[in-house]
Amino acid sequence: MFNQILPMLKYGQKGPFPKWTSLKGMRSLFFHSSVDSIVEVNSLEQEVAIALGSNVGDRMHNFNEALNMMKKSGICVTRHGCLYETKPAYVTDQPLFLNSAVRGFTKLGPHELLRTLKQIEKDLGRTDGIRYGPRPIDLDILFYGKFKIDSETLVVPHERIWERPFVLAPLIDLLGTSNDNDTLMAWHSFSRKTGGLFELWEKLGGESLIEKEGMRRVLPVGNRLWDWSKRTHVMGVLNLTPDSFSDGGKYQSVEAAVSQIKKMISEGADIIDIGAQSTRPLAQRISPEEELSRLIPVLDAIQEIPEAEGKLFSIDTFHSEVASEAVSKGVHIVNDVSGGKLDTNILEVVSKLRVPYVVMHMRGDPLTMQSKENLCYNNVCKEVASELYSRVNDAELSGIPAWRIIIDPGIGFSKNCKDNLEMLMGLPSIRGEIASKSLAASHMPILIGPSRKKFLGQICDHQNAIERDPATIAAVTSGLLGGANIIRVHNVKDNLDASRVCDALLKHKKCHA
């Protein structure tokens, strides 16, 4: 049946994909198959999947430039797989690869697309060499619309998809557990498995291959590849504001801020998250200029701190100007509580900055987020997951790859006490709901920030935020056992201890599964 798809499309017969049964009135191209028959292929916009690989030079730079060139060549990327560092296959005496895949649309015909990708490879320095040997960039067409192509120069689906975990893993990431169109159904059918590509992936080993077969998911940050899955990472909070709910006014001087940074680093913080605008409920928004006036002296001082060497810094802002300036001053991560909703330019700016982006869920803004309307949920985990994925999708369409995104369900932001508890207990269901739309998004690191928040005070009857540290540890523990990867906390020392216990428990559970 599979080899009959193209002839059925050509002659308008009713095949397995009725949407494409007729090409009447459509501009078409022709190519010669290996048996010299001429086959007509629709050249209107087609959905494609393209694999990327690199193991020579600056691998991340090669990926970034390839994606940029693809965009300029008429390939609109809509989704990205996760980023994998993998051991080389076939020819093993060579450097480790970075691998991923992208999904998008193009009006280029299949052979025109092939020529375009080969030209990008050439422009990025690829030359003829050993087959399966080192290369600065490798771009392969995995799928082209619903078509099977077998010509002298191009075979689609790519003939070695089915045996390569380093290709299949990021390809699976481009899908959701719920098929969203006929083209994806065709891609699944090409696997010749009843369960489609998912069955094929499971037969190869599925998730068990990650970390075991020379493959690991990584997030590029600074000059390193960050494997966030090995252990919990602790993000220490530094507020440079006069009105934050927990420590407003304590760190407004440069000296006090630097002292607190040194303290959190000495206590084991992996990341320092710096904010110069309060996002507590009912907080008034300040201008980017005022935010920067609080921030820049501290960022300048950080560059003189020996203890900061090798540590990561993030900027807690929803202003694009602030994000851009902070990154120019050495900040590594942009942490946006609005997920791109409060400044329409921030997604494009972060895309160009090429830094990790924390996408948080919030309805409204700090002034309105606790309104009756914004607190209305029928199923908080399902709705937060859906709305959060919508923000992730917008980020990807703006050019921020999935492999640079961290997701945050937004504990305390447009949620009441019950909602916050349901989310802390429901992180697996949030991942599962996101997976129905995008497996790549479901694999993103999850950041949670329950630290000292009002709902903990309501439960424990503590008005003073600092008195909520033991409750914070309980909330953090619940989140970590449910799959969170990063905790954003004020008290680094005690929460680091809690995270180590959680890591040990999870490792024990995994070993005895």
From TrEMBL:
Keywords: ATP-binding, Folate biosynthesis, Kinase, Magnesium, Metal-binding, Multifunctional enzyme, Nucleotide-binding, Transferase. Pathway: Cofactor biosynthesis; tetrahydrofolate biosynthesis; 7,8-dihydrofolate from 2-amino-4-hydroxy-6-hydroxymethyl-7,8-dihydropteridine diphosphate and 4-aminobenzoate: step 1/2; Cofactor biosynthesis; tetrahydrofolate biosynthesis; 2-amino-4-hydroxy-6-hydroxymethyl-7,8-dihydropteridine diphosphate from 7,8-dihydroneopterin triphosphate: step 4/4. Residues 232-500 form the Pterin-binding domain. It catalyses: 6-hydroxymethyl-7,8-dihydropterin + ATP = (7,8-dihydropterin-6-yl)methyl diphosphate + AMP + H(+); (7,8-dihydropterin-6-yl)methyl diphosphate + 4-aminobenzoate = 7,8-dihydropteroate + diphosphate. It comes from the Eukaryota. One of its GO terms (molecular function) is kinase activity. InterPro entries: DHP_synth-like, DHP_synth_dom, Dihydropteroate_synth-like_sf, Hppk, Hppk_sf, Pterin-binding_dom. GO terms for biological process: folic acid biosynthetic process; tetrahydrofolate biosynthetic process. One of its GO terms (cellular component) is cytoplasm. Its cofactor is Mg(2+). In the N-terminal section; belongs to the HPPK family. In the C-terminal section; belongs to the DHPS family. This is Pterin-binding domain-containing protein.
